[in-house]
Amino acid sequence: MILDRRRFILAGAISASLIALPAWARFGQGFTHNVASGEPGPNSVLLWTRYVATGGSSRLTAEIAETADFARIISGGSVDAAPERDHIAKIALGGLAPDRWYYYRFVAADGNMSPVGRTRTLPTGTCRQFNLGVFSCANLPFGYFNAYAHAAQRQDIDLMLHLGDYIYEYPRGTYPSMDEAVADRRIEPAGEIVHLADYRLRYASYRADRDLQALHQRFPMVMMWDDHESANDSWQGGAQNHDPLREGEWAARKRAAMQAYREWMPVSDAGWAEYAIGDLATIFRPETRLIARSRQPDLGAAILGQADPVAAMKRFRDSVWSDPARSMMGSEQEAWLADGFRRSARRARWQLLAQQTVMGFENMPADIAGWVPPGAPDYMKALATFAPVAAKLGLPHYMDNWNGYPAARSRLLRSALDADADLLILSGDSHNAWAYELREAGQPAAVEFGGHSVTSPGYESYFPNVAPADVARGIVAASPELKWADTAQRGYMTVSLTPDAATAEWLFLDTIQAPSTKLAGSHRAKVAARSRRLA
Predict the structure, then answer these.
(1) At 485, phi and psi to the nearest 5?
(2) Going along 82-182, which residue ranges are E strands?
(3) In the predicted model, what is the mean pLDDT of residues 457-470?
(4) Where is the Phospholipase D N-terminal domain (predicted)?
(5) All domains in the chain, ordered by first residue
């Protein structure tokens, strides 16, 4: 693909060393990375910690109580923190009441106790309001996780969602460059992560961040990987920056990435899942990256060397790009989601698809050439030349999201319409903030709220000489589905659900260059129930 900045800046990236020091060697012993919880249900929750003992494996007891003093233990169990799982301990505990906040901890055999965590169960029956925090794209060297810090202090959020790019795989000095990186935001290992030991150490490096620990400690989280938890622009059979000659078989790297994620995150091994929020909503958490995604189409390859690039683009549009066999999720998962829409629409007001990449169609304006700074690299010149032409032909300029899989997108939106679902799509990956009205076969099908990044740069890094408001205004004007955008600020999003409306709020942090929870501003958008349109 010719228009992805990351594809070009990674050209000289070095490979990771074959052997990395194990995480325990750099992060001490005992409870090294606090606690976390996830995958909540009405009567259960999954608890996570990491405990490094001198003798290797250690038996831990998990305890849940209604009060922080643990005067009465209402649920518990035992689990091993074993070296073969990087000393990670995870346990799902039941016997809980719906719609309740709880406290939990782990106790080692020698009496050593973890920090106390807070978690909650999901409601059943009538539910009048439920609030979500939504995060994506947290590249540690680019800046401080102030979005996590701000959200961790709140008392009005029920559940956190992380839509992917929780870590980044690059070596030090690549995205960000050494000049762009914040001085004391150093990742381990130094090289690109390829092998299981590398991935484990990178997670240990990220999870050492105090703001990220605080967020996990105080809220349950539902989450799924995107590409950077494995490698850039990954798909079922490979990735843009995976070189089999230097880095070995993709299948081995993918297995290592998936294993490390499932060890270090408070998640089960389920490929996809749904979460019922009483009669108010169902949250569907799909997998759109590693299990069944077809390879991204490559518009650049289609027009390279062609005497008539426009004719080549038309051929590409009508064949490769439109091919109905190409998929983001695979047929099994598509069937699961369509059935889930039907089941949920019969009993719940909202159907939320909390997934990784943007679904709304985004075009570049015809005057984009005026945005490209002098001396810009070739990929920016290509963007200015071909993106407006592609837009006129109905083609996207970026293919590593749902725009690159139009038949799959159509099938998903069609299944929601067939179920009469009140579909709200939450997406990450793009680093920018968006509000879309999605249509299918001429009908309003869904509203999409795209969350901006925690730290990763957005369009402000592409067009540094253009006012961000002008960039956002130009893209919105060129994109019929897009109704609002912010293309220059970092932070997180909240979504408040009621029977009458769903309201998103994008919160913009004042800085990521220093620790701070000061906000620079915010923006709200709302969709009324049954409207499938922004209010």
Answers:
(1) -155, 150
(2) 88-93, 101-108, 117-120, 130-135, 159-162
(3) 95
(4) 33-121
(5) 5-40+122-528 (3.60.21.70), 41-121 (2.60.40.380)
